[in-house]
Amino acid sequence: MLTTDLNHILPELALTLGALIVLVAGLLKPDNTNSLKWLTIVTQVGTAFLCFTSTTVAAEAFSGQLSISSETQVTRLLIALTGLLVTLATSNGRIIKNRVEYFLLVIGLQLGAQITVMANHAVTILLAIELMSLSSYALAGYLFNSRSSEAGMKYFVMGSTATALMAFGFSWIYGSTGELDWSTLGNYLADSPKVSDIGSIGFYLVAAGLLFKLSAAPMHLWAPDVYESTPFSVINLFSTLPKIAAVILMSRLVTAELFSSPFWITFVVAVASMSLILGHLPALWQTNARRLLGYSSIAQGGFLLAALSIAPGQQIVVLLFYLLSMAMAITLVIICLDWFETNYNTSSFDSFAGLGRVAIWPSAGLTIGLLSLTGLPPFAGFSAKLLLFSSIWSSHPNGPAGITFLIFLSVFMTVVALFFYIKIPFQLYLKHNYEKSTKVDLDPYTLLLISFLSAMLIALFLYPQAIEFLMVNAH
Amino acid sequence: MQEHFLSLLIFLPLAGALLMLFWPSQDPLHFRRYAIGVAALQFILVTWVSLFSQFSEEKATWFVVAGANQEYFSAGYHVALDGLSFPLFWLTSLVVLIALVASGKIKTQVKGYYSLMLVLHTAVSGTFAAVDFLLFYVFFEFMLIPMYFLIGIWGSERREYAALKFFIYTLAGSLFILVAMILLYISVRQPGTDDGMLVHTFDLEWLTGLQGLIPGSILDPSSNIVFWGLPATSWVFLLLLTGFAIKVPIVPFHTWLPDAHVESPTPVSVILAALLLKTGTYGIIRFACLILPNAFIEFTSLLSFFAVLSILYGAMNALASKDLKKMIAYSSISHMGFVILGIAATTSMAMQGAIFQMVSHGLISAMLFLLVGSLQERTNDRTIANYSGLFSKMPLYSSMVLIGFFAGMGIPGFSSFIGEVLVLLGSFNSSPIPGWLPMTATVGILLSAGYFSWTIQRMFFGPFQSKIEGQFHDLTNLERLQFLFLSILIILLGIYPAPLLDVISEFSENWPKHFMGSAFN
User: Is residue A357 included in any domain, yes or no?
Assistant: First the structure.
């Protein structure tokens, strides 16, 4: 029924309506970024509210194109809240010309992400991913200098190739199974097809496209270069929303039979290990804060992929917790890095030297965010990693060797991660500021955001049950 | 109020630190006095409770992530003190107070310094008081962050290198412990829960001796899961042992210690030597040995071998040191070797000696590092060869050094003698470890006499000559207070150890009983 179907996607409709309003308002008053930003925020708040109050428990909409379950409800809410957080963290100064399109593209990205997590049919998946991607390609070039345009072009070319691979993969899956449903793909894979089977090759091609959005190896090469040339708020978007969408889409494949099948374990272990190694090790040589964020993104992608090996019921809780703490920590880091770049023109690590004494709150916020990403107590990142490792192990108690290897690799890589995450706090606090930089006052809005996010990271560690507030209609 | 006294005392310094961070005053003296006040209050309260009252055990739920019919993850907040942790808890409050009093020379970013010290105080107290493995682990890891900044910001020239080395080395150890902790968690269930709801637990009540073991799980001896010839329980034990061995430190995982000590400021060195090293040995006893007693019995001779290796290697390095602080750092490694030997011996006398040695070494190393610190403040040079005949210039200081060094050697009359004698007697009587190991350990005492007396002779006796320009004034009043207090405690414990031994005995008496079921008892 059309009306019930529309009821299921009420948040997405609200988002589309908001986009149109932002577009029109932008055309009427192109110079007023502030009001556009707040208009976007209102839209996103409305979307989040509609996600939260949605009463759908389990349904299929639009004759099987979308599938809504408790996991998708929770994830939609997470995406809506993350989008809201990222927009709140956007500082006006960095968004230069053509502002209307910026907010429109952000809403487009969020819309794409929200539909991706619900998508059940190959065509819908491709459409939703393309919506996310096209918005991303335009956003990547948003600094409008030559480097940024190059980054956007690179992202566009590689991203289109990834999507093309996905489409090709779906055609092979159709040829093999005769279905284009995402849920039946899970059942097909649970029978452990051989690698030479057409269907499994098709799956690998589809996975390649999704891994691209996740910035996970082996489709990770775009991340450091693109991150280096985009504005910070766009980096924030890229590090959070597409990853949530891609990893949740892959987790929806995992059924009770699939998660312990050799095919899936081999796939997860291979991809997760590659991302962990290729994300952590090159990061050790980085000297640019933005590129570091790119490699950090690859590394976090590795941890998220490792979470795909957890048993289905537990998987969503672990992913939710990890994604939430990751999103908050990354947003906190980016707010602070953005502030440093605006006020002290920092780019490489050396330029941060000694600023810990001059800029107290941003340095503290940056340190808290980076320590949370590493996984140290008393921050939410620690609880997230702890939950991740213990869930992986309890899902495979007599673990195949691959899982044991994956756990030890993740643990080892956490130490490596500390080494490069600590580089900026090292410069901030342990080095002396020889140029005697002047103190710049922190505006109350940024201070509020930094305090709020730091407090949330510690509060989520002390009271992890708070995650249950997000569990809309769960179980 | 009485029931929550322990938690209040654990978090009192943290609350003090947070309050201090938001204090508007800029006068460094205010922060110093305030921090010393908080630490003194803590020390007085802990001592009062130890003499007249008792801490009660506290338990609460903390981290529960649940699904529809299954609890995915649960961890509780459980703190208590017993014969092992109580002396260490008291030692923490004492040593931090002394370290804060000795922090007079810190003049830059004073507010940050004192807040970090108080936060460190909470972390260390919590480490000793926690009875839930996850809670312990959180406090254990949390110690690393303040230490990194304390060494890195207020240290000497190579402080950045030392701080990073310390952080990464000990974090690697912590991660081994994390893996072992998770393996233990999934293998243990809380008894009393029905089969439908599998409730795992981190609580030591159920972990100790693997009482809550789930049959068929990875750590069940009958499940025969073997990696490379060793059963899974042995692997978990080795992981825990390695993680804590890095902290103790046991040779060959000791290389972070000399750098960390030499480059950190004196008060931080004091806390590092007196407290942080003890968290390592505490972890070995409480978590590695008590949770997996059967695996421990298999590895006692290996552990005792490494203990004696630490004793001898530490002593030899101390003998070869040109830097006074490095010499004392290596002597710490040597003394901690005795503690490990006491643990490995599995007799109750050896364990009593080990715990006593932990407390005694805490006091003695505090004194030794403060002594070096005093010299360093005056002349900024720690090279032993550059000094001679200091007794004539600084008689009171030299007397204190004599007390400290003799205590380090284990001369009767000082607390270290009691500790070492109990450990050695207990090890000679012990069946699991080969007899030649304790004999070799006594050579370590001989070596300590060597390096300490040689240093005394070189630096303090003879005619006064100094290649250093410096003010060789004798002890200030504050220094006199610190050293007198510590010397009195060391000598008191040396001639009247009974009160401390009584407290320890309630733990050490029960210690061999954990290994009753094994072949060696």
Answer: yes
Q: Is residue A295 part of a domain?
A: yes
Residue A387 sits at the chain B interface (C-beta within 8 Å): yes
* Residue A441 DSSP label: P
pTM for the whole structure: 0.89
Residue A213, classified by CB atoms within 10 Å of its CB into exposed (0-12), middle (13-18) or buried (19+), is buried
Q: Please check whether residue A293 lies inside any domain of the structure.
A: yes
Strand partners of residue A348? A288
Q: What Rg, from alpha-carbon coordinates, does chain B have?
A: 23
CB A342 within 8 A of CB A442: no
Q: Which distant-in-sequence residues (6+ apart) come within 8 Å of B439 by Cβ?
A: none
**What's the domain range around A261?**
254-475
**Closest chain A CA to residue B184:** A390
pLDDT digits (tens, 9 = 90+) for A267-325: 999 999 999 999 999 999 989 999 999 999 999 999 999 999 988 888 888 999 999 99
Q: Identify the burial level of B353 via C-beta atoms within 10 angstroms of its C-beta, where 0-12 means exposed, 13-18 middle and 19 or more buried.
A: buried
Q: DSSP 3-state assignment of A316?
A: helix
Residue with tokens 């708040």: A45
| Domain count across chain A | 1
CA distance B387 to B429: 44
Show the low-confidence residues of chain A (pLDDT under 70): 1, 92-99, 434-437, 472-475
- Provide CB contacts within 8 A for B484, sequence distance 6+: none
**Which residue type sits at B386?**
N
Q: What is the complex's ipTM, to 2 decimals?
A: 0.83
Q: Which residue of B has its CA nearest to A460?
A: B63
Backbone region of residue A379 per phi and psi (left: phi > 0; alpha: psi in -120 to 50; beta: other values): beta
Q: Tell me, yes or no, whether A435 lies in a domain.
A: yes
Cβ contact A382–B141 (<8 Å): yes
Instruction: Considering only the beta carbons, identify the residue of B67, B137, B149 that sits closest to A313.
Output: B67
Long-range contacts of A445-450 (CB under 8 A, 24+ apart): A446/A91, A446/A335, A446/A339, A446/A362, A447/A361, A449/A88, A449/A89, A449/A335, A450/A332, A450/A335, A450/A336, A450/A361, A450/A362, A450/A364, A450/A365
Q: SS3 for B251?
A: coil
| A364 contact B CB<8A | no
* C-beta atoms of B164 and A398 within 8 A: no
C-alpha to C-alpha distances, B344 to B297, B415, B437, nearest whole angstrom: 9, 21, 11
